[in-house]
Amino acid sequence: MNPLMLLPKLIGVAKPLLGIAKPLISNPLVKIASDKIVGGIEHSIEKKKIIRAKEIEAEQNVSIEQVRQQQHSIKDEILTIKITAIFIAMFLPFTQPYMEKGMEILRNAPTEFWWAVLIVYSGSFGLSTLNNIKGKK
């Protein structure tokens, strides 16, 4: 069956439906309501676009900040390696006399020295750890 043969029948059915809808569409109240609905939908779409653009911008800023923080991560690694090396050296027989002498010197170190060490380590590990915790939340 040729679909074009159905076209006159479809037009015959569509004309009365259009006749009912035409006065409804030309009604000023329907126009106002439809304009409000369409305007609301357009506003919602625009709002979603703006929010998504802000989210993308925020993600890019976070990525840039993570790259900046990674530039300083090498000092964290160096400090970790130094602490580990000192700990290992305490148990190696050929370094124990030197470690014992070094610990004796550290026992007599002034309080200011320990404050300086505390500031260096907390500044390196403390701030980067805090930033990592903040970033995960």
Q: List unreliable stretches of 5+ residues.
A: none
What would you call the shape?
Answer: rod-shaped
**Could you say how many structural domains there are in total?**
2
Mean pLDDT: 76
The largest sheet is: none
Distance between the termini: 65 Å
Strand content: under 5%
Estimated helix fraction: over 70%
Q: What is the structural class?
A: mainly alpha
Helix/strand order, N-terminal first:
HHHHH
Specify the number of helices.
Answer: 5
> How many β-strand runs?
0
CA-based gyration radius? 37 Å
Task: Spell out the blueprint of helices and strands.
Elements: H1 7-26, H2 28-70, H3 73-89, H4 96-107, H5 111-136
Can you describe what's shown?
The protein is mainly α. It has two domains: 30-71; 74-132, no CATH class. The chain is 86% helix and 0% strand. It contains five helices and no strands. The protein has helices spanning 7-26, 28-70, 73-89, 96-107, 111-136. Helix 3 (73-89) crosses helix 5. The chain is rod-shaped, with a radius of gyration of 37 Å. It starts with 6 loop residues before the first helix and ends with a helix. The model has no long low-confidence stretch (mean pLDDT 76).
Quick rundown:
The chain is mainly α. It has helices at residues 7-26, 28-70, 73-89, 96-107, 111-136.
